[in-house]
Every structure is written in structure tokens, then in C-alpha cells.
Amino acid sequence: xxxxxxxxxxxxxxxxxxxxxxxxxxxPAEGASALWNLHLSVRPLESNPNGxxxxxxxxxxxxxxxxxxxxxxxxxxxxxxxxxxxxxxxEHAGPVVVWRKELRDGSGGAGLLRGGLGQEIEVSAAAGYSxxxxxxxxxxxxxxxxxxxxxxGAQGYVGLDDGSLLxxxxxxxxxxxxxxxxxLPGGGGYGDPRQRDRAQVERDLRFGYISAEQARDDYGxxxxxxx
Length: 227
Description:
alpha+beta; four-stranded antiparallel beta sheet; 8 strands; 19% helix; elongated
């Protein structure tokens, strides 16, 4: 039961993938599926004898797969819809600093309907502390698959801000003054990307949801030149 947020969220993708074979056009593409819950055990350094221990849990979600009639929802757990606390509440609960928590641009799978975006998160212990965290993440080796010609979402990533690569499973240590970097996976796309409405591609490009390279290579879109 300790990883029900992983297994329990993969089962719907399995069932929906089977249903798609007999009910095409009715179910969404695969999403991030597993929640990226982050359990932190924060401890004071020897140089901080008055510090306090803290146990903290952050709920985080990657992108949902594109639906047959709409883009996938970004940073949204499916099917549970679990939300997390605001960053300010997390920092108030224990000695941690959330340096970044934002949508992961370009992570949604291309398609007639685009997959939802994952997130990029950077967390460190506050001054005078270090922490261990329990990783129970997935979609790192096997990204969310698209449907009906839609492309895969981006794979997940776990590492440190110095470029060190960490594991997707197991307890690991983050030294003082280092940041844990999480790049949550995106959802798969639905349908042929070349058939996506040009106005939607232009909007995604303008908002930074996709890069100029993705617009060109995946969608065959060349921005209009200003005269």
C-alpha cells in the first residue's frame, strides 16, 4: 500500500488502453499516471544544534493524456485529481525552500490534441539543514504513449542541480546547499499533430507550451513573419 499512488494510477491507463480497442475515440491517451509524491526527511546539520527535525510530503502531478476532443490537463493527477498545498504553506511547514515550481514547457506529447504538460520543481533544505527523500516516481524510462498517431509525452527526470543523476525509486540524500531537481512527465498526444488547428499551435508557441523547433518538426508550423 505504500506505493498505491503509483500502481493505482497505472491501472486506469491499462483498462482504458484495452477499451480503446473496442471503443475508439472515447478514451484519453496515457498520462503521467503515477503521482510524484515527494517525502522529505529534513535534519539539522551539526553546526545547527538548535534546528528541528521535519517530515514533509508534497503531492505533485505530471500531465494528463490528451482527450479525444480536448487537450490534456497540465500538472493534473488522473483519475484521482489530487492537489498539493501552495508553496508558501509547504515552506511554512518545515525548513525547506521551493526554488521553482512551474509548468515544464514542451513536455506534452504532440497531436491533433496536445498532451498535458508536466512540471519542473526545484527544492532544497533551508540553511543549516540537509534532507533525505523517498523517491517513488515513474514514467522515467517509459513515457506516456499517444493514441491515434499522437506522440509520446516527455519522460520524467530526477537529479541534482549540479547535474548528478538520481534514481526514480528508493531513499536518497540531498546535501546541504544542493537542490533536488524534478522534471515531471508529460501526457501523450491524441491524433495526427499535422492536423492540429494552426491557431492552437500558434497559441501554444506564444505561451511557451511548445518550442519553435517542436512547432516546426512536430506540427509543420512556421510562424508568420512580421512585416
